[in-house]
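Extended Data, panel c. Modelled sequence:
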Amino acid sequence: MSPIITAARLVAGATPIHPDQKSTLPKIAGAYLLIARLAEPLSISIGRRPPGTLETGWYAYAGSAYGPGGIRARITRHFRSDKATRWHIDQLTQIASELITVPVPGGKECALLQAMATESGVELSIPHFGSSDCKNCSTHLLQCI
């Protein structure tokens, strides 16, 4: 099992949920870790910045779900393959060979990211990924190294 999944369990205190278990996700507001495995490198665009590359391996994205439908609605969208590319994470989820989530009802994405970043075997990934509107974090994406 990936160290990033093990770390996610420790940090979030929850069991990861696979796409076929999405009906068990809570419909309340909170945060989540979205864990993705890339089987091939991905050239990714972040706004007007030069494209970056995500190498093969495991990644964890810290996101928030404070809109209608809460965590279930947001994660269900991430698990869909037939979606418009709207957010940075969509570029990753559309080609990921595996997706898993760890919901954190009432949680905050920055707190999840900061807790995960202290775990050994993970490092901050592409600057500004998923954190365009965040004043505290340089990225919301971690890579398992």
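The helical segments are 3-12, 70-79, 88-93, 109-117. This feature is highlighted in the accompanying rendering.
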